[in-house]
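Support reply, case 0932

Customer input (verbatim):
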Amino acid sequence: MKLVTNMISLFLLPMTLISTMAFAADSKLYSGTLCQSISNSTSVIHQDGVVYNKSTSIQSVDCGVARDAASSSAITVYAIDQNYGDNVRCYASSIKQGTAFVGWWSTTGSSSGTNSAPQTLSLRTVTGDSTSYLDITCQIPAQYSGANSAVLSYRVNEN
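Our regenerated output:
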């Protein structure tokens, strides 16, 4: 009987470890070049891992996320804001499409002031379920005196 108990224990221990690893916290850092223009693709430039706005008007980009958990514990966008009259603004949404459109949105994170140094935009977490996807939408201000604002990267922590 003891041999059977030991055999079961040897089988269940690895299975328990594998199942808990699947639900462990997960952090992913994405390059800004993964963001795609939704307003005017000729003015949004992807270069050196960054997405820049080289136009004279605000440009919007969608930044996809590989979701493997139902909720996120932190969403951060790293951006450069070089426009004195406007800010980089981003929000996250968890969207479920099916018979009816259902979505969950975060509050908007915004850059503060103009600076060529990276700024951190913290977005409120969003939840969903196994059939929803996570998306980050950013508005990048227009070029200002030849200086371009940009989304450098974004990080999503899931749990």
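We compared this against your earlier run and they match. Two observations from our side: The chain has one helix and twelve strands. The first strand starts at residue 26 and ends at 31. Please reopen the case if you see a mismatch on your end.
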